[in-house]
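Sat 14:20. Reprocessing the chain from the morning session after the first attempt stalled halfway. Input below, unchanged.
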Amino acid sequence: MAPKNFLGRKVRDVMTREVITVKEDRTKQQAARLLSEHRISGLPVVNDASMLVGVVTEYDVIAKEGRRVRDIMTRGVISVTEDTDLEEVSRILVHERIKRLPVLDQGRIIGIISRADLVKEVATRWVCPVCGEGMHSQLPPSHCSRCGTTDIATLEEQIAPGF
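Finished this time. Tokens:
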């Protein structure tokens, strides 16, 4: 059984909401320009009705033949909803060896969650060793929100087994 690294958090807690997409009728060069300008490695592909139809990645741009995004994109994309547990997202990303998952609501993209989002979640997670309360903060919290412990030395970063 995998360690519980995400304290019951959901996709909605960490997903990127402002998603850069590309339409399926755009050229390979236009997709490459978006990837380069935004320094991202993949783009959800949408049709004229704004429904997700695929994903185009850096790999697709450099390795596949075709003039249009629809010719080089990956179809049959795995997606999640904003209610999906981060543990499940982690399992999918690792098992499927992919870097990102579109977040959908009735077929429309409302966000995206990536490996980087999960890494950031782990980096900003703290646990009180006194009561076990989970907290999120860039810096070590000054006190525990549950038990009130103020001895900063007693607040320890949660480290998953194997790290």
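Helices lie at 11-14, 28-38, 58-63, 69-72, 86-96, 115-123.
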